[in-house]
């Protein structure tokens, strides 16, 4: 090989390296596409009918759909936390690691209304500690 060819190949390799490192080091931004608060009763009929008022016998289900810019890129595994608040006070928390393998990604959680009690509630979904969706609702007797 000629000296010039080696120099060109070295430069191409160096540029490829920086392109890969540059892309890998950019943080992926996850954003909310949609959210739905519904009941398990609605889901039994194949629907996700939005609701914000529940009775103590209901099962409450909260869906959040998130996306990231490059659909070809997998976001990997990240912690997801769901916080349930009664009048601003944390009353329930759930968490798990979720593999963000496709966009949009459906995240969901559920709670029995009887386990939460009566009152004004807020549920939020966090990915990597950042809120990606929340909603408020009421539970009555």
TrEMBL record:
<protein>
    <recommendedName>
        <fullName>Lipoprotein</fullName>
    </recommendedName>
</protein>
